[in-house]
């Protein structure tokens, strides 16, 4: 078993690798009353192909059905019996599961995740039952014009790379994926060498690592599955698509291609996102941004051009996009809203933000960073995701690198990536109901 440790003033995490290839990250929080157990797999919609889109998300659903030492319903019963919580989710790059438990009940999380890793049951009856669930989720999304606009944006921005389809998959694929397809996908990607266990709580690595070895060490070693080799060609001109869907609002969504997380340009892109839309680097879920002081809110929302206006840039394994998202104010033409949105983009391309804007963004980033390190659930997730995308050391040094981004650098990055040639625009026009009597 390999073992190493990295120390930082604010973040201390130990990293180990079991003999079967499972990476283990341990974050000790002395005297914490609760613990967190995360299992994160390097598999998501990025690892799918036409015909089986949505399969990673469906497998995630199946892994709450039990298997091995766990019968159907045991996961919920084990966690709820001690007042804990649990869940799972699928993204483009990874699939994650977690249990938040009283500190002295961490064994329950380790049991659940070790059985989930290689012993899950795929009962044919449960497969068909869950088909109804994932298809229903897809149909519900199809009733949401904003979802359809986002999906169309990615399908247009990406011609070849699997980032082009949504995590939920296409309905025609969900209707024909078989039990064998699901099980093969599970066996290929749910192996220790393609996974990471993250444990956060009042445990020293020396004491908790043997327990982790007890649960996960017996799992079979195998080679990690190969990564996708699809590379999206450079976009050579603006792409436009227009949707007309039933709805009471119009939407404008824009995507600019950006590099993967290993590029030095990502720090400038993060600061650009913060200037335009507010800080969300360590925030996951609603209510965690600080966008009211940001440029898009002031230029579009406060002036009643849009009811919502934001940008978005997330760390990804492969090159992805910097996105703009606008909900047009009722009564404002979609063309006018787009014109003013693009004017804001042009402003930051031509003129660097003020030093005050950057200082405010850094202050907000530091506050979010401190908040993240104050909760077991958030720490486990953020540490694991940064390790999956790059390394948790990247997270620990992120604030320092962002502080070095100058106003000129933000403008330079905007001029480099937020170009007409590099953008895809999706306009979604809502077909209003006629309520007149």
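^ structure tokens above, recovered residues below v
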């Amino acid at each position: 078993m390999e073992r190493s440790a990295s120390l930082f003033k604010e973040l201390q995490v130990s990293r180990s690798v079991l003999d079967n290839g499972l990476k283990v990250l341990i974050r000790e929080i002395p005297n914490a009353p609760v613990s967190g157990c995360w299992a994160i797999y390097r598999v998501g919609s990025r690892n799918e192909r036409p015909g089986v889109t949505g399969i990673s998300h469906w497998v995630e659903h199946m892994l709450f059905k039990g298997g091995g030492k766990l019968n159907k319903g045991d996961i919920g019963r084990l966690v709820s019996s001690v007042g804990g919580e649990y869940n799972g989710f699928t993204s483009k790059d990874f699939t994650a599961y977690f249990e938040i438990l009283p500190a002295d009940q961490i064994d329950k999380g380790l049991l659940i995740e070790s059985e989930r890793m290689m012993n899950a049951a795929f009962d044919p009856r449960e497969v068909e039952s869950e088909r109804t669930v994932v298809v229903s989720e897809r149909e519900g999304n199809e009733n949401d014009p904003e979802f359809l606009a986002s999906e169309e944006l990615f399908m247009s921005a990406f011609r070849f790379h699997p980032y082009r389809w949504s995590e939920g998959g296409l309905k025609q694929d969900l209707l024909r994926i078989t039990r064998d397809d699901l099980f093969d996908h599970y066996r290929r990607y749910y192996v220790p060498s393609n996974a990471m266990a993250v444990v956060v709580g009042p445990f020293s690595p020396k004491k908790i690592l043997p327990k982790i070895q007890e649960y996960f060490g017996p799992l079979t070693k195998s080679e990690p599955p190969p990564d996708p080799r699809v590379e999206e060609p450079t976009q050579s001109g603006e792409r436009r698509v227009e949707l007309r869907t039933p709805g009471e609002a119009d939407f404008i969504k824009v995507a600019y291609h950006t590099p993967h997380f290993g590029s030095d340009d990502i720090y400038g892109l993060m600061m650009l996102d913060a200037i335009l839309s507010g800080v969300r680097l360590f925030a996951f879920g609603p209510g965690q941004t600080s966008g009211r002081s940001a440029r898009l809110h002031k230029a579009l929302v406060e002036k009643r051009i849009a009811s919502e206006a934001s940008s978005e840039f997330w760390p990804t394994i492969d090159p992805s996009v910097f996105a703009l998202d606008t909900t047009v104010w009722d009564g404002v033409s979609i063309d006018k809203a787009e014109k003013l949105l693009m004017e804001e983009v042009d402003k930051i391309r031509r003129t660097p933000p003020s030093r005050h804007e950057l200082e405010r963004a850094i202050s907000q980033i530091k506050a979010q960073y401190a908040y993240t390190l104050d909760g077991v659930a958030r720490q486990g997730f953020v540490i694991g995701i940064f390790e999956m995308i790059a390394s948790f050391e990247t997270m620990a040094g992120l604030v320092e690198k962002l502080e070095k981004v100058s106003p000129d650098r933000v403008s330079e990055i905007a001029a480099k990536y937020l170009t007409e040639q590099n953008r895809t625009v999706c306009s979604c026009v809502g077909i209003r109901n006629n309520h007149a009597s």
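The longest helix spans residues 124-142.
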